[in-house]
Amino acid sequence: MYIKQIPPFLKIYAATAIKHMILIAHRGESTDAVENSLSSITLAWERGVKAVEVDVRLTSDDQIVVIHDAHTGRVTNQRKVVRKSTLHELKALKLKLNDKKAEENESIPTLAEVLQRVPNGRKLIIEVKSDKRIIPYLVDLLQASTLENNQIEIICFDKGVLAKLKTALPMYRMYWLLDLDYRWPHWLLPIRPKQLARKVKRMGLDGVDVWAGKILNKKFVEEFKKVGLAVYAWTVNDLDQALGLKAAGLDGLTTDKAAWMGAEFSDIQKSKTAIVAIHGLGNKPPKEQLEKWWIQAIKEGFAGTENEDLDFEFKLIYWADLVYQKPLRLEETGEFKLHEDYQPSTGKHQPEGHSTQLKVMTFIKDQVGKIFLNDDYSLNYKGLTDTIMKRYFRDFDVYFAHQESGFSKRELIMQRVIDTITTYSNRKIMVIGHSMGSIIAYDTLNNRLRDHSIDTFCTLGSPLGLPIVLNKIALENNKYYDKENRLKTPETVKKEWHNLKDTLDKVAFNYNLADDFSANVHGVKPVDHIVINDYEKDGEANPHKSYGYLRTKEFSRLLGGFLRN
Question: Which CATH number covers residue 48?
């Protein structure tokens, strides 16, 4: 199947495929700026493009310049053959603008100039256009570069040149350029993807970079993936074709419109997914500020990963105003009370005692469960447990308190959850509940939203496994048991329930919700993850903090998968 068009109903699948496909700016942002110029390359970096492809050739005096053609006629006002010209002669030529961006009197750049301008975390893909004479000079230049190994990749049509470069520079990924059916009809070419993939593997290369024609399809990509090779393609400027190739599992796509295409991918993905979050115990800062900090924590977790460019629709369900008269406000010092302001990770957090704590918690959890909770979820020592809840979990007590007249706090809070989730009923939804928010989420999903669809449920620092909480939930959800009289995962949750817990988090005392909640009709039950919550403020750790959970690598991986899949 030739991937030229993709049906509209499949666009969301393509735009959110799990596998990350990197967009490569072809000779920079060459639609808007002069190809292979410093202006074009810099424009790509400024627009947030992660990878730029450039072409390099060797001059008569053994300097490496960035230009595609063998001569300068197309990009300057004078025709000179690159391999017969010195660097000085080429630098004297000025680039033709042709209504495209470039600095005044800008000339053909050297590869050294381009290498100096590659930002941290970005990638330069170098296409070698010259013959083997360029090899020692390119090797010397790249070995002197301060860029990380994963910031440089090399592509070339000449497999002999590529093989020699791979031997000299094994630290860089290298791809064999293939034009496939670029010049000839595909039916004339006896291309066998399986045999071709094995040949590239024997050559010791990392993959291929091929023309996006009729030969390139899902089966072609799969044959290379089977032997651990990557597949890039060139040059695609059509959005539908790009989405089709992404759905086929392509690793990288070269385009003249990298920034535009990336924005289109993001818009499609963002319009089809929604993250709905519910905050936890205690009074909070104003909603707008708290929501901003949650998003900041998520993006900090995404930083430096393949999720870094993911955009998302995020809605925080704020309920503190229904329990507390006024939100937390700034003090004269500029700090919010109760450690509620966001503090980025210092990277110096040294967790201690997690393994020991896990063993102790497992033992205590079993003993406390036996002491306080019967098999039918009824409580022993009810007076004692009521006192504990009122003293340490005021919000929980207020939430479940019955009210003689008017709407109870529980009904008001649940309605906010219902209204928000209903708003996104046409999207794939992840519900995140932190602390008390996980109780509110479970309660609402189980009682009031059973006809809706939630893709993923994620609980952070959740007290759902506490005997006192299980008792209250059982009383309010008495018809949602399994055959063994256990509480069940809400039927609303169609795909996954993940529970994240730091063993030092005292609120989430029972870390193993898989023991307390059975699978629903979709086969979904809690999957428990032990994580390190590194949140600190003024040197004081807070392993229950929502921000710390939101930036853990485990949560970032789960959320990234949800947004892409």
Answer: 3.20.20.190
Q: How far is CA 8 from the centre of its chain?
A: 24
| Inter-residue contact 339 to 537 (CB < 8 Å) | yes
Is the sign of the CA dihedral 214, 215, 216, 220 positive or negative?
Answer: positive
How many domains does the chain divide into? 2
| Digit-coded pLDDT (tens) for 73-112 | 999 999 999 999 999 999 999 999 877 777 778 999 999 9
- Same-domain pairing of 248 and 290: no
d(CA 368, CA 61): 80
Q: Which residues of 21-57 are buried (b: 16+ CB within 10 A; e: fewer)?
A: bbbbbbbbbbbbbbbbbbbbbbbbbeeebbbbbbbbb
- Residue 43, both tokens: 């424009």
User: β-pairing, 152-156 with 123-128?
Assistant: parallel
Q: Directed axis angle between helix 287-302 and helix 553-564, to 10°?
A: 90
pTM of the predicted structure, to 2 decimals: 0.70
Please write the tens of the pLDDT for every residue from 267-307.
Answer: 888 889 999 999 999 899 999 999 999 999 999 999 988 88
Residue 443 in 3-state DSSP?
A: helix
What are the helix (H) ranges across 25-174?
Answer: 38-46, 87-91, 111-115, 135-143, 159-168
The answer, yes or no, to whether residue 119 has pLDDT greater than 80, is yes
* DSSP reduced 3-state for 215: coil
Q: Which pair of tokens denotes residue 121?
A: 């975390």
pLDDT tens track for 227-248? 999 999 999 999 999 999 998 9
Whether the Cβ atoms of residue 52 and residue 119 lie closer than 8 Å to each other:
no
pLDDT of 331 strictly over 80: no
293 and 228: one domain? no
Query: Can you give the pLDDT at residue 13?
Result: 42
DSSP state of 100: S
Range of the domain at 62: 8-256
Among all chains, which residue has been given the structure tokens 């307390």?
516
Contacts 24+ apart (CB under 8 A), 220-227: 220/193, 221/248, 221/249, 221/250, 222/249, 223/193, 223/194, 223/196, 223/197, 224/193, 224/197, 224/200, 225/249, 226/197, 227/197, 227/198, 227/201
Q: Report the run of H or E that residue 417 belongs to, with start and end.
A: helix 409-423
The CATH number linked to 540 is 3.40.50
Q: Are 536 and 347 in contact (CB under 8 A)?
A: no
pLDDT at 494: 96
Residue 55, in any domain of the structure: yes
Which of 223, 256, 289 is the last residue before a domain boundary? 256
Is residue 69 domain-shared with residue 172, that is, in the same domain?
yes
